Amino acid sequence: MLEGKKFILGISGGIAAYKCAQLTRLLVKEGAEVQVIMTKLAKEFITPLTMATLSKRPILVDFFNPENGDWNSHVDNGLWADGMIVAPATANTMGKMANGIADNLLITTYLSARCPVFVAPTMDLDMYKHPSTMRNLETLRSYGNELIEPESGELASGLIGKGRMAEPEAIVEYLKAYFKKKANKDLDGKKILVSAGPTHEKIDPVRFIGNYSSGKMGFAIAEELAERGAQVTLVSGPCALKITNSNVKRIDVVSAAEMNEACKNEFSNSDVAIMSAAVADYSPVEKADQKIKRKSDELSIALKSTVDIARGLGEKKRSDQFLVGFALETNDALDNARNKMASKNLDMIVLNSLADTGAGFNVDTNKITILSQQNKMKEFALKSKAEVAVDIVNELVGLL
Ligand code: CTP
């Protein structure tokens, strides 16, 4: 996967710089080319001679060679690379990357790079946890940079916790998986509608009926689809999540009725629709204009059923369209899911059973079973929602 790929390895000044010797060796062994750029402090942790020998190229530190005035063009380097790895990324270097403080060749190259950037932080325990580090990491993520999470273990200070730079083998695995995914554009040109999150049904100006859905599953699916080349429209109920992929058009809605309107409008222009939202089944008949005051011991609010969005799309579905639904069940999970698939005219249904620990709302993991036409069924292990999204999309691609 890395054969012929060109990498800039930006080394900043942390003790984990010693791991860059092994990282470079592994990359070269995979058939990649490596151009090392070091900060001045990095040279104190690992010698330029070691890095030049392993990378088979002179390393770069300064903007120009003081001996002959040769310019080390950060722009050319930035354009040359298929990927830039900043490892170890110290708090200082990440702060400069996040804020565009271009006082060394590593940062000017970073600012000029058009390729994906992989950041492998290294830090002591409390430095890593500090709000400024967290904010810088968030900023780098928002620029689309890939974060290769540090590992937990004994740190140089003797403290134990998160902050050790990922091992070279883990970094190489990360890069392989990234480029494999990039080559895997199996949804190129497909238009896909995804609904996600809860809906809020207004009771009065300060209250609503909602549910515990965080939107994480639907957002992870939207990101995965977009990574694989699809043009995604994400209709999202109220949730605090962000989408990073620019191939996702996001439409924010609040109520089931608004979600229905948005999904109906988008569906005719979609090849696939994935309904992962936890839509309220009932909404207050009256929505009070003024705050409802406490008057008696009991209060009843009359509710009327909302539109079933998935069912509506199922009724309109053309033969060239594919409709995926979700089922969240507490009992008789398989039977209920099969019935939902039939009654809503779905082509595939993703079942989450609340009987499984780690599945369902407001957690980072999920355990699913996928049912499709002709009584096909596939069970999956408990995984992170990002990994579950990959399974769902793989299954979808297989069925399309
Ligand atoms: N759904 C929808 N519109 C609704 C309710 C549900 O589009 N008003 C969709 C969900 O997004 C999901 C599927 O229908 O893809 C099943 O949702 P679920 O809440 O499990 O089922 P319901 O049909 O609401 O049935 P019940 O609540 O009785 O289990």
Structural summary, described in words:
There is one protein chain. The chain is an alpha/beta fold and 400 residues long. The chain is 34% helix and 24% strand. The chain is built from 14 helices and 21 strands. It has an 8-stranded mixed β-sheet with strand order 12-11-8-13-16-17-19-20, with helices on both faces. Helix 1 links the parallel strand 1 (6-11) and strand 2 (33-38). Helix 5 (91-99) packs across helix 8. It binds cytidine-5'-triphosphate. Cytidine-5'-triphosphate binds at residues 195, 256, 275, 277, 279, 281, 306, 308-310, 325-328, 340.
List the SSEs and their pairings.
Layout (H helix, E strand, L loop, with lengths): L5 E6 L7 H11 L3 E6 L3 H4 L2 H8 L18 H7 L2 E7 L1 H9 L5 H8 L4 E5 L3 H5 L1 H12 L3 E2 L3 E4 L5 E5 L3 H16 L7 E6 L4 E4 L2 E3 L6 H12 L3 E6 L11 E5 L3 H12 L4 E4 L6 E3 L18 E3 L3 H8 L5 E8 L3 H11 L4 E6 L11 E2 L1 E5 L3 E4 L3 E2 H15 L1
Parallel strand pairs: 1-2, 1-3, 3-4, 4-5, 8-11, 8-13, 11-12, 13-16, 16-17
Antiparallel strand pairs: 6-7, 9-10, 14-15, 17-19, 18-21, 19-20
Cytidine-5'-triphosphate (CTP) binds next to helix 12 and strand 16.
In total, the number of strands is 21
The class by helix and strand makeup works out as: alpha/beta
Q: Which ligands does the model contain, each kind named once?
A: cytidine-5'-triphosphate
Strand line-up in the sheet with most strands: 12-11-8-13-16-17-19-20
Identify the overall geometry.
Answer: elongated
